[in-house]
Amino acid sequence: MTSERPIMIRAASVRDLKAIWEIEEASYAAPWPKETFFVDITFNADAKYFVAMVDKRIVGFIGGWFKEGKLHIVNVATHPSFRQSGVARQLVLFLLDLARDLKMESTFLEVRRSNVAAQKLYEGLGFGVAGLRPMYYPDNMEDGLVMTKELCSAHAGD
Ligand SMILES: CC(C)(COP(=O)(O)OP(=O)(O)OC[C@H]1O[C@@H](n2cnc3c(N)ncnc32)[C@H](O)[C@@H]1OP(=O)(O)O)[C@@H](O)C(=O)NCCC(=O)NCCS
What we know:
Blueprint: E1 8-11, H1 17-27, H2 34-43, E2 47-54, E3 57-67, E4 70-78, H3 87-101, E5 106-112, H4 116-124, E6 128-137, E7 142-150
Parallel strand pairs: 4-5
Antiparallel strand pairs: 1-2, 2-3, 3-4, 5-7, 6-7
The chain binds coenzyme A.
């Protein structure tokens, strides 16, 4: 395991949209529009977003929807200059802890079949592949792997 960079995690607000979107744009070939983050953070009562800070700089973010006993992790990204130093792992662990506090029973997410880095991240945190969403990503018709993890079981682990 790489040594972990110390970060501070706090709830995201609309004031963080610019920094979040800069990371989004640097991270994905088909980034979400800025408006999607705005709507999710402002109006979606099920959504919770958090940012990772190094000093006063936002270096990563994570978003999840907490609904019907399940945490759906909808986005996580680390600024390219801060990758492979444990930022995403700490963000995911933070969200999983919150989900347990909120009595969520399980968590799931979709990940591109080609996104090996993200799959390794989730596998390392105890997620397993549970299914496939054919042509889930409209930009290139790539399949999405569905990865899940139980949160309540004594054997859920991290
Ligand atoms: C995937 C991503 C979020 C990982 O962020 P990160 O902060 O660099 O990840 P971490 O440093 O916390 O790494 C945790 C684990 O992820 C895996 N991992 C991270 N980057 C990896 C890479 N380039 N290759 C292989 N495994 C990788 C490793 O298992 C790592 O554990 P280790 O340090 O014990 O080897 C980052 O590469 C990113 O922002 N990618 C673009 C956005 C994206 O794909 N998000 C996920 C959508 S499902």
